[in-house]
Amino acid sequence: MRMIAERGPEKLTMAALGRAVGMSSGHLLYYFHSKHELLLRTLEWSEDRLGAERARLLTRTGTARERLEAYVDLYVPDGHRDPHWTLWLEVWNRSQNAADDARDRQAAIEGARHRDLVALLAEGVSKEEFRAVDPDRFAARLRALLDGFSIHVAIGLRGTDRDQILSHVREFLDESLGRQRRS
């Protein structure tokens, strides 16, 4: 992750990585078979760490809305060239030509993010903190919105910094979920 942050994945070579970790590029290729596999495993490792953070935030006290905002905060990149999002972008780009197994592993990562969000939305709906929505459908749409905005932040698109994006998402959540009035 440090090398991806410093150089970007396009300049990450097996030889340079091997030198940094004290292994030959041949040893790296023995364990990872390809740069794509190395990047995918690094993404899985990074997502495991984020998954543990998500689990902590989803089980903490507070309203579903507060936890939803924490989920969004964790989801959106810290800024231009955020290493986790830079890695995502590279893996997505390479997945066009990847084996089915690699795409299945990406889908498993996406599925974990999705399930956590669905559970949080379902809780908010059941407690009448959110307007009645289909949690699965709303989660799919919200994640698409977050992915699109996150790409803008990660690539450094002018006029789309993290604070602006978080403001847009909060506004979307206010408009879409609101608060259901009790009869």
UniProtKB/TrEMBL annotation:
<feature type="domain" description="HTH tetR-type">
    <location>
        <begin position="1"/>
        <end position="50"/>
    </location>
</feature>
<keyword id="KW-0804">Transcription</keyword>
<keyword id="KW-0678">Repressor</keyword>
<keyword id="KW-0238">DNA-binding</keyword>
<dbReference type="InterPro" id="IPR036271">
    <property type="entry name" value="Tet_transcr_reg_TetR-rel_C_sf"/>
</dbReference>
<protein>
    <submittedName>
        <fullName>TetR family transcriptional regulator</fullName>
    </submittedName>
</protein>
<dbReference type="InterPro" id="IPR050109">
    <property type="entry name" value="HTH-type_TetR-like_transc_reg"/>
</dbReference>
<dbReference type="GO" id="GO:0003700">
    <property type="term" value="F:DNA-binding transcription factor activity"/>
</dbReference>
<dbReference type="InterPro" id="IPR009057">
    <property type="entry name" value="Homeodomain-like_sf"/>
</dbReference>
<feature type="DNA-binding region" description="H-T-H motif">
    <location>
        <begin position="13"/>
        <end position="32"/>
    </location>
</feature>
<keyword id="KW-0805">Transcription regulation</keyword>
<dbReference type="Pfam" id="PF00440">
    <property type="entry name" value="TetR_N"/>
</dbReference>
<dbReference type="InterPro" id="IPR001647">
    <property type="entry name" value="HTH_TetR"/>
</dbReference>
<dbReference type="Pfam" id="PF13977">
    <property type="entry name" value="TetR_C_6"/>
</dbReference>
<dbReference type="GO" id="GO:0000976">
    <property type="term" value="F:transcription cis-regulatory region binding"/>
</dbReference>
<dbReference type="InterPro" id="IPR039538">
    <property type="entry name" value="BetI_C"/>
</dbReference>
